[in-house]
Predict the structure.
Amino acid sequence: MSEAAAARGVGTVVTAAGLRKGYGSGERRVEVLRGLDLELPRGEMLAVVGPSGVGKSTLLHLLGLLDRPDAGRLELFDTDVETLAVEARAEWRNRRLGFVFQFHALLPEFSLEENVAMPLLIGGASRRAALERARELVAAVGLASRATHFPDELSGGEQQRGAVARALVARPELLLADEPTGNLDASAASALFDLLAQLHLSRGLTSVIVTHNEALASRCTRVLRLTGAAVGDGHA
Amino acid sequence: MGVLSLLAGRYLLGLRRRTHVAAVSAISFGAMALGAAALVVTLALLEGFQSTIRTQLAASGVHAELRPRIGRALPDGDWVARLRAAHPELEVRMVRGGAVWCLGPDSAVPADLEAVDTLSRVEVNRILAAELGAGVGTEVTIASPRLTLSPLGPLPLRRRVDVAAVGATQPGDERAVIRVPLQLGGELLGSTAPRAVDLRAHDPRRAWEVASDVQRDVPGGVEVVSFAELNRPLLAALALERVMIGFGVGLVMVVAALNLLCNLALLAAEKRADVAVLAAAGLAPSRVRRLFLLLGLGVGALGGILGTVLGAAAAALLERTHALPLPRGVFIVSHVPFRVTPGAVTVVLGVSLLAALLASLAPARAAARRDVLEGLRYE
């Protein structure tokens, strides 16, 4: 564990018990998560794998406070997230969580550094301070020379590295990545995963990464396999 | 508001990568500007015509009238003399009057005779001059209802006079009027008590203040009728005209606002993925709503300001160059007058902002309520 990780201390970041989530109603109802139990200690790098439609992204959305479970209990940082109001959930997403998505990596009207600075600007930081911090992160993901470029001037891999920088710019404790390498070729995917692993360690993160790529998943400290049946805690 | 201003500004001005949305935004902007310009020009045109009418009214008519509160005669005393002394800036005319017949070169017509103490010559107004076929220098016979005995029996008392001036007619006043000196009036009508005192300011621009200026200098039995009250029907018609035409042209702003609503709805749909990413980064729904309100107000405010400036400039140019002439003899002015007032500019800017705000409410609310996950799945 790195110094940064040590500074975070120990504890449980995610505690889920009997988590259920489904979509639709009546005969068209589809149960996606059926009583998921999960405990994620601080500093863990968890890969979530499984076939399509099994609820990997749904789990990520629940952990990211973008959706609410139908049943069960979900705690983040020892707080029952159901007690959080809409505004508080938004503030948590801004300050404590970082997201990387498969699509929509960057906003097209903004330069790379502006995209990276966006969470800080949303959090109320001054434009100058936000851009200064954003440039640090852009450099940390190896894109210093591309800081002022717009997304359509960047490759897919560069855009995803930019999205990683944006996810980390506000110093979150929990990083959530939904198929971050899904649109990349093998070598770009491997490079991005290397970057995620390195930042995970150096910044003392707790990470949850949804992926179809078993090779990449095996590089995480733990793998949660979703099968569609009721699942207990993930297993390596 | 920092990040919202940044986002709104970039969406409005930096839509280079979404050209169809940019084009529709430009159309919305143009529609708001056009609506504002049309409203400013229309209000300037109305104000131009109406101020001309008001000026004409003040230049030709009475600015205030003193009438008895009870009965047909003003109270006795030297209060009129004191009023004259206290207000040298006013022309004070004591009026006695009654109905007479006037016989001119072409015809005989009934008219109102006004005996004015400050008058030393005979004047007819334009209506009477037209009906009699008379002008300056024409001899007119005034027949009074008073009778005089003649060898043929009682006949109406008659006096021949020369018309010394043809006076202007107050807009809205359809009476045929002949004004004569007080002494001649007394001969024709007898020793009638004064029925009114007309007040006129030497400076017609002060017409509106005359009544309040003299209020404390008249006795209790005298009612002061102001310039506005004297011309109430005409002024009310002018005000109604302004409201109705302003409302009609204001519908252009409604159309522009509906266009803006469609544009914002399109923008909200187009940006659903971006909004979802921003929501994931911590932008609360209430701030998403404010973002789209800001976008709508941005288009409305900028369009309104541009349209107002262009409309005001066009109106000023038309007024300065007299670009729209009117047939002489038909209208009281030689060209279509335009007058831009600060009040009209304020109204147009306010209407622009209000229209933009109302048009933005529904799309902003829809954008704030849109499911974030739906946006993230949108590709």
User: Anything to note?
Assistant: Residues 186-202 of chain A form the longest helix (17 residues).
